[in-house]
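User: My collaborator sent over this chain with a note saying "see what the structure looks like." That's all I know about it. Can you take a look?
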Amino acid sequence: MKLKQQPSDFIVEELSSVAVSSEKDEHAVFMLEKQEIDTFDAVRRIAQRLRISIFEIGYAGLKDKHALARQYISIPTKYNVQGLKMDSLVLSLVGYSRKKIKIGDLAGNRFTIVVRDIEERELLGIAQRAKTLAVSGVPNYFDSQRFGSVIDTTFIGKEVVRKNYEKAVKQYLTSYQKSEPKKIKDEKRRILSQWHDLTKVRVFTKAFAVVIKEYTRTKNWQAAYRKIPAHLREMYVNAYQSFLWNECVKEILKHSVEQKKLYSVEYAIGALLFYTDLSGQEMKNIPKTFLTISETAMFSEDEQRVVDRILAQEGLTFTDFKIEAETGNFFKTRARQVLLVPEDFVISEPMRDELNSKGTTMRYKILISFSLPKGSYATVVTKRLFGH
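Assistant: Without extra context I'll predict from the sequence alone. Here is the result:
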């Protein structure tokens, strides 16, 4: 099975909650269509082209880089922008709003996905799982996209909870993804080679230099950690909290669903647990929502047992999550839906996959479309259906 073999195979369209008017108002609202570029980079490029601050551009959520994505953004009307076309993005004016679009100003997202390279022997299982989707739904996991900051399975957020600030800073300054620019990777290698004496390393990236300067000045790794940009520190905390939530849901499924119905699917940082279907009793056994872990979260007796098992695996206690005074960040308690049923789900009949069928080797493609509430991941649905 192959996802995102070409950008048009994965289309995500934002379902906005912003009221848009045809009458001119303080903010112009645009449809941003982009591909092979993430939302942060798209906003940065738009700001550079218009010569305005990135903070004046509003958007409701982050969309996958490896997709054809359509989302709404706002720009103050005073800049008299009518539209914009660049290499990987297009802005089209759709109306006006009194307020700037903010994170969370969306009802959900609509997905249209072509899944390719499916073998004939897989078709029956896919059809059976699709039939149960409307009843049993899918676990509402955070998927791999949430964990881009996790390199070599090391969570900076976990090191912060453990008060291992040197390891957290070292991970930030020296670990890198293959996709990062060569100059950044080279700089991180230089920093690692001089880790025993950071006064000897010459650093050109301002964000890295600030952190190193703070440590060489104070010899305090906690102080150095606080010099990492705030949005990154928040991302590290959120990533670890999301991982823990996933682990709690897996634990719930292990104790709520007949074992022979469960199967694992790998993702960026391990494996997720899915089920073929759920009985009425099994659905009753699974809580509708589950809180994200923080030092202030209040769980029921049954939920507490789940959390205690996961924290024991991680070697942590609730008090370890009290990090705000030392780091400026904190773990927020949120109730997240445990299971979700995709709305308006449609699945096509299998069709010949023109990209992967060769000679006598026949491969199939299937088109699926559905809507999900904000904060949910379409790739969790594809994992449930296709087992990959």
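A starting point for your reply to your collaborator: The chain has a mean pLDDT of 94.
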